[in-house]
Amino acid sequence: MVWTPLHAKIHRTIRSRHLFERNQRLLIAVSGGQDSLCLIKLLLDLQSKWGWYLGIAHYDHRWRSDSEANANHVENLAKSWGISFYLETANQLINSEATARDWRYQALSAIAKANNYQYIVTGHTASDRAETLLYNLIRGTGADGLQALTWQRPLTTGIMLVRPLLEITRLQTEQFCQEFKLPIWEDSTNQDLQYARNRIRQELLPYLRHNFNPQVESALAQTAELLQAEVEYLEKAAQQLREKAMSWGMGDEKDSLTLLPLRLNRRVLQKAPLALQRRVMRQILQQILTDAPSFEHIEKLTALIIAPNRSQTDPFPGGAIAQVEGDWICLK
């Protein structure tokens, strides 16, 4: 086996970030593109050092006329490497990127659960992280959206989603595939500019590289990495503040804190910085709304922390209303 600097980097990353344990079962999501082929080749080469059992999962959205041939291509690669192969094919038309992403993770989780894999591994790179940061920034988001694509997160009970390539750019995965002559399957939808992410990849990032920073992808990925740690800290601090505000003066009623009606003590919240106040309100709204709370939802609930007595909001989606009752914000 040829040991490249990229092998060494990924080996160190897995060890230092505790992404995997030894002798675990890893299900690798392989589309056939350069990033996923780079990923599976690296993990195959590192397998002897870690004792992993590897499997390949492929998903066919049925978006393209060559999608079945694409799936056969990945299956043949799995056979040539002696790896278990799993295919999931969409049984109905998937018409949006968000729906496709949700379907992929559901499909991967089902395969992993049925075959006793502890980890699902994807080939997201620093370039994907940069694109996601820009995409969410353009749409409007807080720090949480800017730090999306984390190294690992629980996907379902007992199954962890892991992204080992988040410090590797798409240019590096391309060079790696060329070095090892890996047979990349070119996905024609990646060139379709009707998708916003493709316009960011094909037009915006090249413009930023040429006119502002040749290393813009790595710079944005590093920003996302910094924000990830800060978001984790703020979320924990907000959770502690929320629990204090909800339980203050309520005795032993903590078991029912997630149910409406619920109360938040304004005197507790008034002592906190605005950033934590907003996060508390966001956490509350995430519990009672079916969709993610908007900036406007969070702001109108936060405003009640210092609003006059008897102030109230207009109804949130679903009908809940928040009202000031003395020292309390009551949601009912």
Structural class: alpha/beta
Count the helices. How many?
12
- Low-confidence parts, pLDDT < 50 over ≥5 residues? 251-258
Annotation, overall tally of beta strands: 9
Q: What fraction strand? A: 5-15%
Which SSEs are present, and which pair or pack?
Layout: H1 5-16, E1 25-29, H2 34-50, E2 53-60, H3 67-81, E3 84-89, H4 97-114, E4 119-121, H5 126-139, H6 143-146, E5 152-156, E6 159-162, H7 170-179, H8 196-211, H9 216-247, E7 262-265, H10 266-270, H11 274-288, H12 295-302, E8 322-325, E9 328-331
Parallel strand pairs: 1-2, 1-4, 2-3, 4-6
Antiparallel strand pairs: 5-6, 7-9, 8-9
Quick recap:
Helix content is 50%, strand content 13%. By secondary structure, the chain is of the alpha/beta class. Helix 2 (34-50) links the parallel strand 1 (25-29) and strand 2 (53-60).
